[in-house]
Amino acid sequence: MDAVATLRRILAARSRPDPYPLYERIRAAEPVRVPGRPVVVFASHEACRAVLRDPRASNDRRHALLYRQSEQGRYSERGEGAEQTGRAAGWGEQAGQAGRDGETPAMELPSFLFSDPPRHTALRRLAAPDFTPRAARRLAPMIRELIDDLLDEAATRSRMDGVADLASPLPVTVICRVLGIDTGDQDWYRVRSSLLGRSVDPYLAFLGVPPPGLAERRRAEAELTAFFLRTAAQRRAEPRDDVMSRLLAAAPDGERLTDREVVTTCRLLLNAGHETTVGLIANGLLLLLEHPQVLAALRERPRTTAPAVVEEVLRLQPPLQIVHRHAREDLEVCGTRVARGTTMVLLLAGANRDGAAFGCPHRFDAEREDAGGHLSFGLGTHYCLGAPLGRLEAELAFTRFAQRVVEPRLAEGPPRYRPHVVLRAPAELPLRVGAVLDRATPWDGSPPPRPTAPSPRRG
Ligand code: HEM
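^ inputs. structure came back:
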């Protein structure tokens, strides 16, 4: 299989359970250029790192010939799943993209993730105080409480599912509370968020067409925007102690943000803070089920083990596998010439298994010392704002799962994966468990009390 066929294979649903051999092939052939399109793909740690740290590598699609050409319909006829338009797609930002002439309409500003400095700096600075390590630590009691509630609820069901019962509901509840948003029916939000999550899959770069489901994504986008605008109007009228109210009141340089700007920022925080953390917890639970000795270490020494486990899960199974950058000017990446306007696709999940950067890169080793070099939170200007919060949620979820869920095993064979290429994670983790211990079980690793009632579900 040549490198371009390998790129197509990365998109295929059958590659979701194990895309890593494909990333290896791309790394061996790096740099991989996509014929007929201004796209180059990198998968080595050195090249991905270099691009992420290069200020000429923009995250603003207006610098990308690929998106401009797709706007003009150049690519919309070709490839699998071609749709009527190649309009650019973002991280849940269908509407916030370059217009037909490559300009972004004033009402459709992209979020700060898809902006360069100085706009990026100004907007990120406004949100940053709510996402410092200290701000995350203040949320710990609330997160602990939520995890225990979720496990209590799971204990009443006839069968536990690691995704539906823990990984999926926890992050959305946490980030909604932080932002001050009440999506009411979480399923309503989850369906739309999941649809929008596909917008970052690299179909345009690899095949020249947008990811499947463009029409549904546009509908979901419009519904979510309407919901957020309604919430913003309510918070403007009656401010609360939450991020949205603070953003609405903020006046950088003496000028308030518009409701649209606040909504775009909150939508970024919600999308970025939700799907990724679901993936981190789900991928981590699967690894823990495969490594019972690590579950035991989490039970016995949660304080030291949990942070190390989280870093290693992030390295080995990154919840966000791929990012894009666009060359604002001609540049060179580790000896490769990249012309202005070229889109650089960075396979972060490949970089995290680069033997040049990590010893025994395919092995899950919660005691390794080099895990911290992973690129799963990105690097440089756009380094994940929510990294402290994501890490904390995962540490607490893994610890509590280890402490309260006795003898967990996968109930069926290998799990089914979501179709998402970038936000890759198992769709479900049906479990057989010996028992779910009482929430009185201490968090500090001291011996748990015996289960008070007969096991709610055996085998
Ligand atoms: C726990 C799992 C998470 C992972 C693996 C993750 C991963 C990432 C990555 C790779 C980026 C950089 C994207 C790029 O360079 O193009 C990023 C950016 C970002 N993440 Fe996270 N994230 C996680 C959790 C969170 C949480 C909980 C939040 C909460 C708000 C969050 C908010 C953001 C924001 C706002 C950005 C944009 C930063 C900027 O452009 O300056 N993330 N994340």
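The first helix runs from residue 3 to 11. The pocket of protoporphyrin IX containing FE is lined by residues 59, 112-113, 124, 131, 175, 268-269, 272-273, 276-277, 280, 319-320, 323, 376-378, 382, 384-386, 389-390 (CB under 6 Å).
thumbs up if we can close this ticket
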